[in-house]
């Protein structure tokens, strides 16, 4: 259930016609980190919360704080950010799902998508690199999935991107006569969300990257860039140049210090990176 930040009696935000972006809690937290990049780079204001009993409870400081005045603001496990000028709303998920609650969350989420009249849903996710089959080992590590409703709506608009659709693989690799199906190992709720959206006629796109656990910051940057190839919500300083991203990092929780790092993005400070507290030794 969406709970707006506005006080009692004030009008709730209008999400009609906007695109909803959210991460799946998946391998390497890549979707969540990429979503952080989008929110911080666009400086998206928080407009509310997604109240649910399906996520592990958590509370922390404002991860996007830029001054002492807003550093004491609290953040919880599911928050909503909006930027109508970009036709974009973002649901950031910061904690894992409680056991057996993922389906309930997906159903509640899609119900909110319908009631808020969002045009489409984009899910940023990841999948275990070691579970790829022979054909998936070749070429790009990125894949996409569109529901039939979205495919019908956009037609051939993304053909120029030369993206690669997620392949169907054997249900049981050891049995060559087993059925072919979409599998996203390590993808969390990604496959379930996709199947429910297909059955309910919701326009949804899944964008994911094959990766492994570890330092997943480069994967998050790659996934944000992959998304931007289509949406064009983040600006680049020039043709064939990399994105200028605000990555809010706490130096003590990272593999490096927040000094000059030449990757075309701006390193700032952050207080939490999804429990990956990698203390520098």
TrEMBL record:
Q: Which InterPro entries does the UniProt record give?
A: Proteasome_assmbl_chaperone_2, Proteasome_assmbl_chp_2_euk, PSMG2_sf
Per its UniProt entry, which superkingdom is the organism in? Answer: Eukaryota
This protein's GO cellular component annotations are: cytosol; nucleus; protein folding chaperone complex
Q: What processes in GO biological process is this protein linked to?
A: chaperone-mediated protein complex assembly; mitotic spindle assembly checkpoint signaling; negative regulation of apoptotic process; proteasome assembly
Q: What is this protein called?
A: Proteasome assembly chaperone 2
Where it mainly occurs, coarsely classed, is nucleus
Query: What family does the Swiss-Prot or TrEMBL record give for this protein?
Result: Belongs to the PSMG2 family.
Its localization reads: Nucleus
Where does this protein come from, organism-wise?
Ornithorhynchus anatinus (Duckbill platypus)
SUPFAM superfamilies on file: Cgl1923-like
Keywords, in A-Z order = Chaperone, Nucleus
**Ranges in a coiled coil:** none
Pfam families from the entry? PAC2
Q: Name one GO molecular function term.
A: molecular adaptor activity
Tell me if Acetylation is a UniProt keyword of this record.
Answer: no
